[in-house]
Amino acid sequence: xxxxxxxxxxxxxxxxxxxxxxxxxxxxxxxxxxxxxxxxxxxxxxxxxxxxxxxxxxxxxxxxxxxxxxxxxxxxxxxxxxxxxxxxxxxxxxxxxxxxxxxxxxxxxxxxxxxxxxxxxxxxxxxxxxxxxxxxxxxxxxxxxxxxxxxxxxxxxxxxxxxxxxxxxxxxxxxx
Length: 176
Ligand SMILES: [Zn+2]
Fold this sequence. Notes:
- The protein has 176 residues and is mainly alpha-helical.
- 52% of the residues lie in helices and 8% in strands.
- It has five helices and four strands.
- A two-stranded antiparallel ribbon has the order 1-2. A two-stranded antiparallel sheet has the order 3-4.
- 18% of the residues are buried.
- The structure holds zinc ion (ZN).
């Protein structure tokens, strides 16, 4: 779709430069993603920013112009109105699990457990774990540094006491 450059940039920025359905970033995919209508124009959707989704080509291909035709048809999860953790649960294996019927339908329709997506999620989870371990390591280093400082102070105090003891012994020896 043809969009004013400014609006397109707003949509990209609003989505944090990632596909709002699957989370793939422009950096992951090596280029800009696409702007699509959540409710397709063919089904009466308009160009209002609330109806515009920033998405990757794959998600758009799987979504196509899906829109429920009747009450029995499931609605797709709308990333504009609800956060993903209401409908999906991400576990350590990088796989998304559905929490609701809407989540289940969206997962299937958009193939949100595509192998490259699982790989991307695992990479991100590992990066988070690395950052957490690094933070823990840094705080342990800080503690070790404090302990060494305290040890140094104690040694200095001990040296002062030994010096005093030595002076006292010398005095006593001189008196005798
Ligand atoms: Zn996507």
